[in-house]
Every structure is written in structure tokens, then in C-alpha cells.
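hiii, so i know i said id send this last week but things got crazy w the move. better late than never?? heres the sequnce for the chain we talked about at the cafe, plus the structure i predicted for it. fair warning i was half asleep when i ran it
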Amino acid sequence: MTGYVRRIVDDELDAVLPQLPAVMLDGPKGVGKTETALRRAETVWRLDDPAHLAIVEADPSIVVTDTAPVLLDQWQRFPAVWDAVKRAVDAGAAPGTFLLTGSATSRGTTHSGAARIVTTRMRPLTLPERGVTTPTVSLAALLDGTRGTVGGKTELTVRDYVDEIVRSGFPGMRAFSGRALRTQLDGYVDRIIDRDVPEAGHQIRRPARLRAWLTAYGAAVGAAASYEKIRDAATAGHGDKPAKTTTIPYIDVLTELRILDPLPAWTPSLSHLQRLTQAPKHHLADPALAVRLLGLDAPALLTGRTGSVTVPRDGVLLGGLFESLATLSVRVFAQRSEAKVSHLRTYGGEHELDIIVETSAGHVAAIEVKLSTTVDDDDVRHLNWLEGVIGDRLLDKVVLSTGPQAYRRQDGVAVVPLALLGP
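okay and structure toks below
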């Protein structure tokens, strides 16, 4: 990929920057926050540049006198600029004055910035943003409740999806393949452990243990594995298991850095849907990180040779990785529609739905993700169950598959190849 690829989040920025004085782009390192922000900035302060940082440390207020829009890149390196921006907004800063980028929530900030600094999340590239497909089915249309006709064909196969899982959605890695790509992904993980975690205020005495936790989360991708199962996988071979108070900081900092991207459980207000688990589904920022942490490649995923996966799970690892790729896409598309994304699972596991997209009005589209080219009645039973429970609140029923064509079944379920889904 060469040149800047316009992102779906650019549409969101086009909508909010003309009216809001301060917007923060929040996401994992390498997701493209700086490149997106640079295209809108007149003044740039790179706080990971020692020269820029020294100036701002000497006088944080300097950033509010520069020509707008002002980009504060990696603002968390000097949290005092957050308060400087907040004060400028309180004093009446014009719309589009400040852009902030960062990968972590700084523990040094005095104020939350609520109602002053608006946060916009950035995630890795979706399939349409990667240029590998042209969508024919809009998530926004699925959320309008009309259950209209869906159509379109794709030539992408399971092998193509596996290739996209392995290649990553981080823009800077799209040009690499083979050993070069593996080296880049290894370096990304090394930097998280060796530099980013300590810079976020967490001293790691045993880097290998933190890597083991990341690897365990990679093995649990797309699953709602318990803390105990992930702990056991991360500490395999250790007689004494660490206390939760010892390991929770690992989870917290990896979440702050947006490397862990858990999908929360749906919490509806309906009284007849109260027996739902509150456990999140586990996802990393990009499924390629999970593949690399586990030491796997495309042939291993396609043939099922994933012996290094030590977290118990339902179904094959590739199914979880495909679900993670689908979840990444749906989250980006749903954000554009101002909708929330979660998952549903009853306590006994009798019913579960991979993705719930909920509008601001409380209506939902329910989505199942199937690593299959065909969809049968068994694949849609949980979708039809939910419709029987919540009735008109269910806007649409969808199965995302690896098949060649989008269509709507007689029971109203829209079967959509992931490659054909767009915002």
C-alpha cells in the first residue's frame, strides 16, 4: 500500500471537527492515528521528539497559541498538555482547534476531559480499507430495520481470509510479507513489552511472563475464556499460580495500550434477558498479533496444526481468528453509525450470539460469524431465538460467512460474506 488510504474514521472527523474544539484519536500504536491527524493539522507537536517535548515541558501553554488545528501527537508523554487543552476549551477555543493522538490513558491526567475533549477510536484497517474488496451490503442499511434485499458476489475464499488475518490491518505492515512481516510483528510485540508498558508507568520485572500472558490472550481470541483459564495457559509449567492482584496490572496496561480489545457482554434492560453472562470475549488489536504470538502461519491455520494453543475453546482457532477479523470490521462500521457493539451469551451457554450491534434507541442487529461457505438452520437458531424474545427490537438477523454470495433466507436471515460487508 502506498500513499494515504482514506479511513472510515475520516468521515467521523469530517462530521465532528467543524463543531468541536478538541478531538482525541485513541488506538493502538501503529494503527495510523498520526498519519490521519497530520492531514488536518497546521501545527504539529510530536511529544515523542525530545526537542518538541522539552519546549512543551518548559511552557505547556505554548500549544494553545499556535496556528490551529494543533496536533499534539503522543500527548500522554506529557499529560500536562491535556489540562492545557481543557483550559483552552473552557476559555472558548474555536471548533477544530486541537487534535490529540495517543495509545494509552495517562494516569497523570488531573481531569477526564469529559464534555471538553471528545475521543474517537481508531482500529486497524477493515477489508474495504485494505482495498481487497468492494462492499455491497451496508451495516447502516441493516440497522434501518427494513430488512431489504441483500446481494453481491465475492471471489474471496477461506485462503484469502487467512491471508488477510496473517498480513495484519496495521497500515505500516501491509507492504511486507513472509519473513519481513514476521520480523515486523515480532518487533511490534517487543516494543510493547520493553518500552510502551514501562512508559505507561508499569515496571515489568519478568518480560517473558508478560509475553506469556499476551500469548494466552492470543490463544483465547474470539472466546470468552475465564481469567483462570487464561492464567493457567500463561503460567503453564509453574507450580505456584500468581494471585489475581499480581496479574491484573498486566491486563490493565495492555488494555490501556489498546493491545487487548475485549468485546463486552450485552447488558439489555429487558427483564426476560437477565440471565446473561457478563464475561467479555477476548480479542487483540489485530488478529495477526495472535497468529504471530502463537508462532503460527497460514498453512498451519488452514491445516489445523495449532498445537501451541493451550486455552480450551469451542471450535478451531481459525474460527476464532475469523470472528476476530469480523468483529474488528463490525466495530469500525458500527462506530460510524454511532452504534455500540457487544456479544450475548446466556449463563448456561444455551444461547450465544457473536456480535450484537445496538443503536442509540436500544434496537439491535444480531450477527453470527461462521467459518463456512454454507449456512443451515442450525447456524441461525440463536438468531431466531433472540427474535422470539425481543420481537420488534431486533432490526435484523445476519450471518457473516466465507461464502461467495450475499442473500436473504426465507426466515429473514441475511447471509453476507464478510468481504461484502461495509459501513
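btw The CA atoms of residues 210 and 250 lie 7 Å apart. thought thatd interest u
miss u guys!!
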